[in-house]
Amino acid sequence: MSKRFKILCLLFVIAIIASAIINLNTGFLSLSFQDFFQDSAHSQIAEIRINRVLVMMLAGISIPTSGFLMQEYFQNPLAGPDILGITSVASLSVAFYIFFSHTISLPEFLQNSFLSLSAIVGSLLLMLVLLSMSNRFQDKSYLIIFGFLVSAFAGAIVSLLQFYAENQSLKNYILWSFGANNMVTRNQIYVLSVLVLIGMLICFRAIKPLIGNSLGNSYAQSLGVNLKQLKLLIIVASSLLSASVTAFLGPILFIGIIVPHFCRLVYNPSRLWQQWILNMFLGMLIMLFFSVIAEKTQIPLNVISSVFGIPVILMMLLKQNKV
Fold first, then answer.
1. For the segment 55-95, what is each residue's pLDDT rounded down to a tens digit?
2. How confident is the model over 169-195, as pLDDT tens digits?
């Protein structure tokens, strides 16, 4: 590893620790050091803030990694779990679960597990469709148009479900779609951690063949890269990472696109191992920063990510047009 990369990692780690400390001290009440480690009148509030920091870090790892995999595989800087419709279909799956499962009595832990499972299955099915369509489209950029169409269709179905939904189910879905990170429980974090860990292990296996794939299919095959296996790894990893976060936090838009873009600006884009690490560090830092803004302003998390992400993507398009 180069000296520059080590310095970048060190700076990111320091910034992440500082952001986490700021998060723990952000809220309506001022907490003392003892509230986080001893039983006190504010221990429950301290636990909520710890959960908030943990889930933001998990989201910061998962969403940029998913976007990083998609962009490197499709060789398109605008590819991502939300642009290609994965997040929309995961949201649709969650909507079906919330609107039609209110009559089923299940323990909270099982409810959270099925909620996550519904999002994962929905996004996995869409990824299979996307990759099958890629064989028909000579230009893979057409998949982005296909993703927009899928997103619009999924949004229309969700709107239809909302129109006929009961008041409580509609309220639950709206609260979920706001990206309320304070509502995530410790049990949900356990489930999310397991899913993220599995996704990261699959991503670890995908990085090396992804390096060969970036040089072209013919050259990758000459290096012994199994392209079918790589496609499967990308499908499973991207779906697990993006859909699991969507299930518990709602749709966090555009982060999977802009974080890999920034990382390529600050370090050599061809070094995918280092790019993956930087994506995780920068993703955690940005999500912790968004969490502070959401807590200070009471603006929903997905609104903040959209307000931040849309201008960045617009600048990316303008920059590419100049080139």
1. 999 999 999 999 999 899 888 787 877 777 878 888 888 88
2. 777 787 777 776 667 888 888 888 998
Question: Which residues, 6+ apart, have CB-to-CB distance to 221 below 8 Å?
Answer: 227
Query: Residues 251, 88: contact at Cβ < 8 Å?
Result: yes
Residue 135: exposure state from Cβ atoms within 10 A (0-12, 13-18, ≥19) = exposed
How far lies 266's CA from each of 21, 120, 226, 260, in Å?
25, 32, 31, 10
Backbone angles phi, psi at 214, to 5 degrees: -65, -15
Backbone torsion region of residue 42, taken as left when φ is above 0, otherwise alpha when ψ lies between -120 and 50, otherwise beta? alpha
- What is the 3-state secondary structure of 266-323? HCCCCCHHHHHHHHHHHHHHHHHHHHHHHHHHCCCHHHHHHHHHHHHHHHHHHHHHHC
Of 58, 271, 211, nearest in space to 263 by CA: 271
For 20-52, letters b (16+ CB in 10 Å) and e give beebbebbeeebeeebbeeeeebeebbebbbbb
| The one-letter amino acid at 122 | G
Q: Model pTM greater than 0.90?
A: no
Q: Rounded to the nearest 5 degrees, what angle is found at the Cα of 18, between the Cα atoms of 12 and 23?
A: 120
**Beta carbons of 274 and 5 less than 8 angstroms apart:** yes
150-154's contacts with Cβ under 8 Å and 24+ in sequence apart are 150/84, 150/85, 150/88, 150/89, 150/126, 151/82, 151/85, 151/88, 154/85, 154/88, 154/89, 154/91, 154/92
Q: How far apart are CA 6 and CA 40, in angstroms?
A: 41
Please report the domains of the chain, with CATH numbers, ordered by start residue.
35-322 (1.10.3470.10)
